[in-house]
Design a protein that fits this description.
Blueprint lengths: L2 E6 L3 E7 L4 E9 L5 H8 L6 E6 L2 H11 L5 E3 L9 E2 L9 H13 L4 E6 L2 E8 L3 E9 L1 H11 L19 H27 L5 E6 L2 H5 L7 E2 L3 H14 L2
Parallel strand pairs: 1-4, 4-5, 6-9, 7-10, 10-11
Antiparallel strand pairs: 1-2, 2-3, 7-8, 8-9
Helix pairs in contact: 3-7
Length: 246
């Protein structure tokens, strides 16, 4: 039995197939702005699955996904009521994003707890998992791309930049200087947040990075133990196994 797993985030929507044991090789991706019944039909032509688990943080696109699949196969939308394999120690669990719950489900078996998952997307989120295990909360900050794009939109002379490792900490051009501020400055943000979280979390947490900018930022943050691009999708897979059976 295979399930279709959908991580519907603000910028990209990622698709994978999973079984009870692991993620399968087939993958797909759509720009979230382009997600429609037509693009879904084209992407999934010839792909076979028995049920769908969706983690969505884009309500308008969640409606499209629901309408597309509801007459085909069973569909489960991940939320705080879903079986993520741990408790939730959070005052308003309905406010926790589906992507953050999927990350929590994924980290438990892939890396262990306690843990902090840093998801570098449109926003960067830090999700804290206690040794109980329980989802405890975390941090939300502007994503690296959002911060760098803001300068290009709001200033007359600063260009839009492609993010990459700066050659040195002293900028020798406008773009070089912007890269230092974006990449090295962002690493400082990550390190300080991790420092403060560590003061409030018992034990030595596994610190796992995922998302589009994870590999770039993790190069200069030794506190990060691993970069795991599949943690969100694998969390959805584990929820699928609990909802639809092994």
């Amino acid at each position: 039995m295979s399930w279709l797993l959908i991580d519907n985030s603000n910028t990209r929507t990622k698709f994978a197939l999973g079984s009870a044991e692991h993620l399968l090789t087939w993958r797909g991706v759509l720009a979230t702005r382009d997600l429609s019944s037509d693009t879904l039909k084209q992407l999934l032509e010839g792909v076979s699955f028995k049920a769908v688990v969706i983690g969505s943080v884009v309500p308008a696109k969640a409606v499209i996904l629901q309408e597309f699949f509801q007459d085909q196969v069973p569909v489960h939308f991940l939320d705080f009521n879903s079986p993520i394999g741990m408790g939730i120690d959070y005052p308003e669990p309905s406010q926790i994003g589906a992507d953050r719950l999927a990350n929590a489900a994924g980290v438990l078996s892939r890396h262990g707890v306690p843990a902090i998952i840093i998801d570098f997307g449109t926003a960067v989120t830090f999700d804290v998992i206690s040794s109980a295990p329980a989802y405890c909360g975390g941090v939300i900050a502007p994503g690296l791309g959002a911060m760098s794009d803001y300068l290009a939109r709001k200033t007359a002379l600063l260009p839009k930049i492609e993010l990459e490792e700066p050659p040195s900490a002293i900028g020798k051009s406008t773009i070089h200087a912007m890269l230092v501020g974006a990449v090295i400055g962002y690493r400082g943000l990550v390190k300080e947040i991790l420092l403060q979280l560590g003061k409030e979390l018992d034990g030595s947490p596994q610190i796992i990075a995922t998302g589009g900018d994870a590999a770039l930022i993790a190069q200069g943050v030794p506190e990060i133990h691993a970069v795991d691009p599949d943690i969100t999708l694998d969390g959805l897979r584990q929820v699928a196994a609990r909802v639809f059976g092994m």
